[in-house]
Amino acid sequence: MNIKAMCWNVQGCGHPKFLTAVKQYLRDNRPDFLGIVESRISGTRTDSVISSLGFPYSHRIESLGFSGGIWLCWHHSVQVTVLLHHFQYLHCEITCRHSGNSFLITIIYASPNSTKQKTLRPHLTNLALSVAKPWLLMGDFNATLDVSETKGGKGSTQASRDFQDFIFACGLRDLGFQGLDFTWSRGMTYARLDRMLCNEQWDEYFPETCVTHLFRMRSDHIPLLLQVGHVRQASNSRHFRYFTGWQRHVDFDRMMADNWQFSDSLSDTIHRFTAAADVWNTTVFGYIGAKKRSIMARLRGAQKALERKHSGFLISLEHDLRLELESILDQEELLWQQKSRSEWINSCDRNTTYFHRMASQRKARNKIRALKLPNGSWCDNETTLCNEAAHFFRALYGADPVPNSDYNITCMFPTIDPLVMGTLCNVPTSQEILEALRAMAPIKAPGLDGLHAEFFQKQWHVVGADVCRSIQRIFQGGVLEPSLNRTALIFIPKKDVPQSFADFRPIGLCSVIYKLLTKIIVRRLKSVMPLLIHPMQTGFIFGRSINDNVILNQEVIHSMRAKKTKQGWMTLKIDLEKAFDKV
User: Fold this and answer.
1) Which residues pair with 151 in a beta bridge?
2) Which of 22, 246, 259, 381 has the smallest number of CB atoms closer than 10 Å to its CB?
3) Torsion of CA 516, 521, 527, 532, to 10 degrees
4) What per-residue confidence (pLDDT) applies to 345?
5) Beta-carbon contacts of residue 500 (< 8 Å; ≥ 6 apart)
6) Which DSSP letter does residue 442 get?
7) Residue 439, pLDDT score
8) Counting beta carbons within 10 angstroms of the beta carbon of residue 38, is it exposed (0 to 12), middle (13 to 18) or buried (19 or more)?
9) Which residues does 221 contact at the CB level (< 8 Å), separation at least 6?
10) Of 538, 575, 574, 570, the residue nearest 557 (C-alpha)
11) 426-482 pLDDT, tens per residue?
């Protein structure tokens, strides 16, 4: 389903420049339906304005004097059924004529009057109890979730808590956004008063949803653009990914023994195994969703037959099918848990719905749909964004074009006792390697080979000797195989709405073998680092906390403010870009 919608608090449709502004938005974005709140006009004047917008259908809630008013206008591409209307909201069902998909939309105009606004939320909370379809709320809520959504003004902490409680009570979540941070401004005061919220069913049916804050024209509010299905398609290339549920299959141990054959190269061994496992997954293990539907259909058939005729064979078949279905449901939960990266839920509980929603939200959150280029323009072209990413991180991580000058360093660096140095370089024992492996999180994101730490942990009796031999060879002066040294670079947003590549923290996804090497080295360095690092350095040393620096900084600032002397004081805040080997 591909649908576009726009919602805008226009603060009055009677202004001569309203039509100019809204027509520009409509030309640029071509929404299937348009929600307008705070129209501030009614009667025949409303008919004249709506007819000039170019939508063949519309419904409206008249304004009361110079306040309120909600309009909904739509094209032939959708069918709208109005279900409820209220001074502060319009609730309707929308059906896409092309796909047949339907969902619920509630257009909100929460009154700025706190007394009137309090009457709105009970209506919506009761509505949430009866909703069983995908549901989206869009419009001006006249509330913020926390202080980060305001700038230049004093927000109400209690009002934010009340808004959070309302969202939680209705089982909703904020869809997020891209574009400008704030949707309303007046003078030097900014706030995010307009937003889109959705329920669980929306996440399930329409995971590819994008909300954009457009630019500001005429009104103090900016329009919100909703895009459902209008997203770039991912590359068709699919990397191998180990699935933890494979180990529950009766044939997995045989497949493992047949295809893990070490031949002096660990990378070649892993490559042959993953290729064989991929084929085995397709031909033997099968697609979980299809297997579940097949077993459920057979189970319904067996139970229906038992109602007509009691049979020992049918009783046995029904029992076996129930056991098989339980096993498949466990595998399905493992799959979604692995995709969601959630590890804190009790493993004995079946939480497939929770894990599915977490995975869907994670996928939507991780998509880069548009970013701001160095020239200040926004770009959503995939090729341009890829080139810009390569340019940005090549400049950050690449070697300096001009060699650094020699520095005359007069201070003495700490030295390490030769005996201690010897312990750092010792060849690790098999037990030391195994302990390092067991210390790893089982299903963290894997490297390019697609194998999680759990694979090596659970199959240590098969792979352990080969892994130990390869790691010990590297400590003896051998070369780390290039494929084991390859790293996938992924971007973790530093803030909720990243606007440029500088707002991402690059994280390398390394192979488990590479992680084992570094973990062994790090464990050995723990006892040495306090001898090398100055006591004032609070980061990266066990037992020290970087929060000490934060507290110290606050004390310094407080002292500067409290000093009553003629001499001035100044602090410098320096932003550093770190790239491991340089600053």
Assistant:
1) 190
2) 381
3) -140
4) 46
5) 371, 372, 373, 374
6) T
7) 93
8) buried
9) 8, 9, 10, 11, 140, 183, 184, 193, 194
10) 570
11) 999 999 999 999 999 888 888 889 898 999 999 999 999 999 999 999 999 888 898
Higher model confidence: residue 316 or residue 17? 316
CA distance 232 to 513: 34
Residue 443 or residue 402, greater confidence: 443
- How many CB atoms lie under 10 A from the CB of residue 263? 9
Q: Would you state the structure tokens that stand for residue 445, as one six-digit string? A: 């994101």
DSSP summary character for residue 248: G
HSE (CB half, 13 Å, CA atoms) of 578? Answer: 5
In the chain the first and final C-alpha atoms are separated, in Å, by 47
**Of the candidates 528, 559, 558, the residue with the CA atom closest to the CA atom of residue 541:** 528
CA distance 157 to 66: 30
Query: In angstroms, rounded to a whole number, what is the distance separating the alpha carbons of residues 164 and 171?
Result: 11
pLDDT band at 490; cut points 50, 70, 90: confident
Measured between alpha carbons, how far is 583 from 567 in angstroms, rounded to an integer? 33
How far, rounded to the nearest angstrom, does the alpha carbon of residue 115 sit from its chain's CA centroid?
36
Pairing of strands 178-179, 209-213: parallel
Q: Give the Cα separation of 449 and 458 in Å (integer).
A: 17
320-329 in b/e form (b: 16+ CB < 10 A) is ebeebbeebe
454/244 Cα distance (integer angstroms): 8
State the pLDDT at residue 349.
Answer: 47
Cα distances (Å, whole numbers) of residue 339 to 105, 207, 243: 29, 14, 10
CB atoms within 10 A of CB 197: 22
Q: Which residues does residue 36 pair with via DSSP β-bridges, in sequence order?
A: 8, 71
Is residue 297 within 8 A of residue 315, CB to CB? The reply is: no
58, 71 Cβ separation under 8 angstroms: yes
Residue with structure tokens 């600032």?
Answer: 557
For residue 551, the SS3 value is: helix
Q: How far, rounded to the nearest angstrom, does the alpha carbon of residue 65 sit from its chain's CA centroid?
A: 44
Q: Provide the token pair at 466.
A: 């080969």
Q: Which pairing describes strands 150-151 and 189-191: parallel, antiparallel, or unpaired?
A: antiparallel
List, as own/partner pairs, every contact residues 408-414 make where C-beta atoms lie below 8 angstroms and the sequence separation is at least 24, other chains included. Answer: 413/532, 414/531, 414/532
Please say whether the beta carbons of 265 and 480 come within 8 A.
no
Q: Considering only CA atoms, which of 372, 519, 387 is closest in space to residue 441?
A: 519
The residue whose two tokens read 């971007």 is: 491
What's the CA angle centered on 174, arms 380 and 118, to 5 degrees? 140
Evaluate whether 151 touches 121 at the Cβ level (below 8 Å). no
